[in-house]
TrEMBL record:
Taxonomic path: Bacteria, Pseudomonadati, Bacteroidota, Chitinophagia, Chitinophagales
InterPro entries in the cross-refs: Rof-like_sf, Rof/RNase_P-like
Name used for this protein in its record: Rho-binding antiterminator
Stored SUPFAM superfamilies: Rof/RNase P subunit-like
Length: 84
């Protein structure tokens, strides 16, 4: 997901750590997020990588989907908390 016109809002640091742990453990995750049009999407996939590019954080899924972290609503039924 690429939304260059919307400033990136860093996510909660503890939540970021949780995403990295799920990636390390190769956990299949249920991910709910808003796409670039604002529609809610619900996917199930493994997190392959959590990374930053041009000061924006993303995660890449095993199905090829790339999600901007500030578009997350919930992962594994755990809602994204307020920003760090």
């Amino acid at each position: 997901m690429n939304t260059p016109d919307i400033p990136y809002q860093p996510i909660d640091c503890n939540y970021y750590d949780r995403l990295e742990a799920w990636a390390t453990m190769r956990t299949v995750c249920r991910i709910v997020f808003r796409d670039e049009t604002g529609n809610e999407q619900d996917v199930t996939a493994r997190i392959m990588d959590v990374y930053a590019l041009n000061k924006v954080e993303y995660m890449r899924m095993d199905n090829g989907l790339v999600i901007r972290l500030d578009s997350l609503i919930a992962v594994n039924n755990i809602p994204l908390p307020d920003h760090c």
